[in-house]
Amino acid sequence: MLKMQTERYLSRILSFGAFSVSIFILWAIVTDPVNVTKHFLLGVFATSALIVSQIFGFKQLWRDCKVAILLAALFLIFSLSAVFNSSSPSIQNFYGSFGRNTGFVAYLFLTLIFVSTLVLRRSESFESLIKSLLLAGLVNVVYCLWAWQVGDFVGWSNPFNTILGTFGNPDFIGAFLGIFASVLVAYLFSEKVKLWLRISGVAILIVTAIEIKHSHAIQGIVVAAGGIALVLFYAIRSKFKSNIPSILYAVFVSMTGVFAIAGALQKGPLSQYIYKTSVTLRGEYWNAGINMARKFPLTGVGMDTYGDWYRMMRRDSALVLPGPEVVSNAAHNVNIDILASGGWPLFIAYLALIAITIISILKATFRSKNYDWVLVSLTVGWVCYQVQALISINQIGLAIWGWLFSGAIIAYEISTREKIETKNSNSIPSTSYKAGYQGENLSPQLLASIGLVIGGLLAVPPLSADMKWSAAVKSGKVANVEAALKPGYLNPPNVYKYLQAAQLFEANKLPDLAYKYSKIAVDFNPNNFDSWKLFYYISKSSSADKDLALQNMRRLDPKNNKILDRPTS
To answer: Among 100, 192, 250, 535, which residue is least crowded by beta carbons within 10 Å?
Structure first.
């Protein structure tokens, strides 16, 4: 069982870690300002938290959360199965595709966050997690307002011409602001909140709403509306002894939700206000992911390798809209992404983790009608993440809150249950803090530092490789570019670097080097369509090379009649 100071230290690691992963970005020294940085920080804090939680709280964790631990273990086992059975490069399966970084290692870290959070028992620990999200949201609100009104000080390409926040994408920042707004409303409904803080919170909510609208992200509006509606349900439920008002409210919100979903599907009176072409596009991406699971039901196509299989698995209608040349490397639905990546075993394990979280929510909710802002905040934050996950790509800065709050909800339900049992039995609670505890001669600070090092060593390769590649390209020197392409522990190979290098060499009249690295690209990942396409167009490609490239392009995109004949430049 955890000592009080140990749990406090653990909650700080988790809170600061989640906050850092959400807001921290790098630019100028990397080509990807968002994902490689968040991936690295996730690994550092996840491993640190796990070591502290397991050394000091494993017995408590196993006693209270056997099912959650077993499901988390199964999730990782099935993820590894997907990695080892994938025809895509192992290193891509481990670290994910460029610009995503949601491979096996990222899911390992997210699972460690989930497991570490399960040992928390103090109310202050859960409040710390919630406040870290509120602080990350406030930082983004201020940053987005500055970028919108003054100008973005981050030197990144912004083709969207709108706010990006610390997530690098308007959809992601819109969704995060929706989560933030919902949790902030849940917090403001607490009776303990002072008047000045409530007034400030309302002002922040107004600014947040304006920013969500400015992001042009429908998912931000959906997440905020759904989250706030859920908060109001808890608030109404706490104000009346009778269940009738809350039931009527739930029916009204449900009917509104049905009309909204119908509108998103271009049906019903709300379709003109809600429907966007992107909904149809998502339908095609979802269908392709489901087809991947049908072809590989037990193993999936591999972790974060959806992009290698999209062309092969898309249906005929996808060639009309979004079109034969429009592709995706993610299903735009986290659940279907997981289904496509690891097949039905991984998908079922993931759904089971969601199910036990829902069960914990229901248990804690039905335990009391009083408005518990901690429970409501955790529940709303988690539900909002799940809502955006139904229509969006997995992104580490968002995903960390889904996994963190999932573990926190399960832990909070156990914590409140034990408090009631203790009150009824007048006995000492099992989570009380005694002088002796598992690992009492070890320092949590020392263990956390060891975890930081281990996590950093495991998570740093993509960040290190991207920094080397950025520096090499900026130098303009052939020797530096080639050095940055040599595989190594701190420089894992990446098909997109090979393609960019080949294009750079071709453009700078270095055909031998262009051919060399375009050939390396197709050897590295024979399932990457763009590699074969570039190999076809490289000036030094022979007639035999072009025939081979064309055969593989047809293999990878069998429904596209536009490549049945040899492409022309």
So the answer is: 192
Q: What is the pLDDT of residues 246-297, one digit of tens each?
A: 999 999 999 988 887 777 666 777 667 666 777 778 999 999 999 999 999 9
Distance of alpha carbon 221 from alpha carbon 213, whole angstroms? 7
pTM of the complete model beyond 0.90: yes
The upper half-sphere exposure of residue 217, i.e. CA atoms within 13 Å in the direction of its Cβ, equals 30
Please state, in angstroms and rounded to a whole number, the distance separating the CA atoms of residues 12 and 125: 8
pLDDT at residue 157, as a whole number = 81
CA angle 67/68/73 to nearest 5° reads: 100
Cα gap 518→170, rounded to integer Å: 33
329: which DSSP letter? S
Closest of 232, 226, 228 to residue 246, by C-alpha:
232
Q: How far apart are CA 556 and CA 132, in angstroms?
A: 45
Closest CA to 448 of 49, 61, 125: 49
* Token digits of residue 149: 């009104």
Give the number of C-alpha atoms closer than 13 A to the C-alpha of residue 213, restricted to the C-beta side: 6
**Which tokens sit at 507?**
């453009």
Give the number of other CB atoms < 10 A from CB of residue 194. Answer: 8
Task: Tell me the sheet residues that pair with 83.
Answer: none
Q: Are 541 and 535 in contact (CB under 8 A)?
A: yes
Contact predicate 394/340, CB 8 Å:
no
- Closest residue by Cα to residue 98 from 493, 510, 534, 564: 493
In this structure, are residues 113 and 49 in contact, taking their beta carbons and an 8 Å threshold? yes
Sign for the pseudo-dihedral over CA of 515, 518, 520, 522: negative
Residue 475 to residue 139: CA distance in whole angstroms: 34
Question: 216 exposed, middle or buried (CB, 10 Å; 0-12, 13-18, 19+)?
Answer: middle
Cβ neighbors of 461 (< 8 A, separation 6 or more) are: 95, 489, 490, 491, 492
Token output for 154? 């981050």
Q: How far is 54 from 10, CA to CA, in rounded Å?
A: 11
**Per-residue pLDDT tens over the stretch 50-75:** 999 998 888 889 999 999 999 999 99
Measured in degrees and rounded to the nearest 5, phi and psi for residue 294 equal -65, -40
| Secondary structure class of 31 (helix, strand, coil) | coil
Closest CA to 389 of 331, 472, 318, 302: 331
Nearest to 331 by CA among 283, 369, 384: 283
DSSP conformational letter for 569: -
Task: Tell me how far apart the alpha carbons of residues 441 and 435 are, in angstroms, rounded to a whole number.
Answer: 12
The token duo for 363 is: 């248990």
Which residue, 106, 103, 108, 109, is CA-closest to 88?
103
DSSP-assigned beta bridge partners for residue 491? 488
Strand partners, 488: 491
